[in-house]
Fold these 2 entries.
Entry 1:
Amino acid sequence: MPSAHCYLCIYKEPAPNYTVGSSYNPLGSCNNCSAFACDYHGYRLSIGSFECRLCDSSLPAASAAHLALESQSSVVGLSFEELDLRQEIIEALLILYHPNTIFFYVRNLRAFLELRPDINDDFGNFREKYEIQWKENPDSQKLRRVIESFPDDAQDLIYVAIVLYNQLQFTAPLPGILKRISNAIIFRRRNQ
Ligand SMILES: [Zn+2]
Ligand SMILES: [Zn+2]
């Protein structure tokens, strides 16, 4: 076994196959969270930075917040309480990605998938593949009003971030804000 280990292999996140290297054996450290990751649990974005699968959802989530901030002045129809929640969600999403470095973001799902061609087959035509249904309880409906005040591109990025996040079995350090939104939604994969 190597002297440095892949963070997600250590925590037994399933890794069905390796094209390079072997389990535990890190290829790099994550540009976002600094954890070591193996070939399966890390990915080199097409712009060159290496990121771990724990951070898969961080770039789309933070990008969504950036788009929401840009459109802040055109938001109508939210109560003061919902505006506060909107701000809280934006701040929580923003810090998921590159909190200590220069912030860069994608403007839509297509731009994200250009950085991540490995998942293009799963998330291209996202809205055709997934049905998004918000739960009926009051908290879910409050979150819904806030998230639906985000631009459409931002909403898609958040939904993809949540589906990516839910694909992981390792749950301990995952971001609370995505979990809260995730708990308010039922994603159904449409029949292909
Ligand atoms: Zn690994
Ligand atoms: Zn990471």
Entry 2:
Amino acid sequence: MAEHPPYPVGLRLTGRRVVVLGGGQVAQRRLPALIKAGADIHLVSPEATPSVEAMADAGEITWHRRPYAEGDLADAWYALIATSDPDANTAASAEAEAHRVWCVRSDDADRATAWTPATGHSEGVTVAVLTTDARGRDPRHTAAVRDAVVEGLRDGTLVAPHFRTRTAGVALVGGGPGDPDLITVRGRRLLAEADVVIADRLGPRDLLAELPAHVEVIDAAKIPYGRFMAQEAINNALIEHAKQGKSVVRLKGGDPYVFGRGMEELHALAEAGIPCTVVPGISSSISVPGAAGIPVTHRGVAHEFTVVSGHVAPDDERSLVDWPSLAKLTGTLVILMGVDKIGRIAETLVAHGKSPDTPVALVQEGTTAAQRRVDATLATVGETVVAQDVKPPAVIVVGDVVALGPDGTTA
Ligand SMILES: C[S@@+](CC[C@H](N)C(=O)[O-])C[C@H]1O[C@@H](n2cnc3c(N)ncnc32)[C@H](O)[C@@H]1O
């Protein structure tokens, strides 16, 4: 280890000759980044791994099928020495030194003139980490530092706002079913960059506590709406904050487009000329049953699943759900917003041919610490909901998948 730390630099290799000696695992790992950098890559090696060979076949590198020979590095700007022959590596490294070609050596980093940093990428930034500790290199530590930084930037636990590209506007973010780990990476990042967050009751509310003090958090349920409808009041709040030049996140439960009124908000924003991005989320319709051990499909049991809203009863004239047709399906029925009406929904399904013994599960507050599963059948679910005091939010699953045991047998 030299007593001075390495000097970090970004090489711009477009069209410049880079020589790689050896076509094994090291080359296989390093070549993609060199290709991405646009380098004119010459691989010198009698053999190569199938992946390296595929790069040559695709014309991404030029492969000279022979061992290293003196003179190979003469015109190179940069070299990667990684053959399995120590003598060849030493000779090539001496040639690189003589021609002042920066060179990385896979077998002896101390005798190399350049080191490859542990790199990762996040949103247009390359994170490159090098050991500078005079006690010696620690590649696993540098990789761990790289991972920590890249992961932190991706999941929003490290906040680095975009000053160049940051534009005012609204992001409709699907926050997932409630567990804060179940938001998407993009959603979490946008949340970390927000000036204003307008949040629903459902979704990952724990994440709100982590936001910096300057972020204005607005509870959508508490927006005063006077003579407006609640949704119009929310739309207006989104528009007003975005017009003040702020980054606004509309944090929703599950996915914005699954009974989430995402498109209504998108239309209102478009009408007001506000830029809007929509970030999908993990919908409770699939994840909440899953969290309670229920797959919505299973080979040989259910080849379809249907997600319906149960917020109005089957005989309500506002209902758009064709309950008689649903009763004829053999697959899984997933009902959201159906706790209050499940008794009448079950009666309707049975009246149109569904077996009263069909298993039903109600999963309340799925993926949160308060998750609770209550089982019933179509014949008993109306009473069970009352007797067990099941409360919204709950996802109701109807079908044979409910009875699947963890070992794949029916329970
Ligand atoms: C207005 S809908 C919104 C659905 C959401 N956009 C989604 O994709 O999950 C609200 C309903 O979703 C269901 N729901 C959402 N999160 C839930 C959770 N963590 N546990 C149980 N049910 C949930 C309940 O049926 C609730 O009444």
